[in-house]
Amino acid sequence: MEKSTYAYWITAKGEILKPESRHILAIVKKPKRFGETDKIVEDTFAKHGEQKMSNVEGKAREEKRLRVIRRGHIRIRFNGTRRSPL
Known about the structure:
Order of helices and strands: EEHHHE
Number of domains: 1
Shape: globular
Radius of gyration: 15 Å
Oligomer: single chain
Number of strands: 3
Strand order of the largest sheet: 2-1-3
Distance between the termini: 11 Å
Helix content: 25-40%
Largest sheet: 3 strands, antiparallel
């Protein structure tokens, strides 16, 4: 069996976005799509003493994710297995 992972954001405007890798990086790279600014993104990471582009899943990541979800954005993640038809 092959493991499949799918990740998407559905914006408050109904756009379907597929992050390149992590959900948080979609917010960091294009903050305006999520109602953020570069300054807000940078300030959030600085507040928690974390690096903006790190793979650490810390407090800044959680704060940003929750903030955009409260604005109406939907985070979708599927981690599962896909069975081969053969």
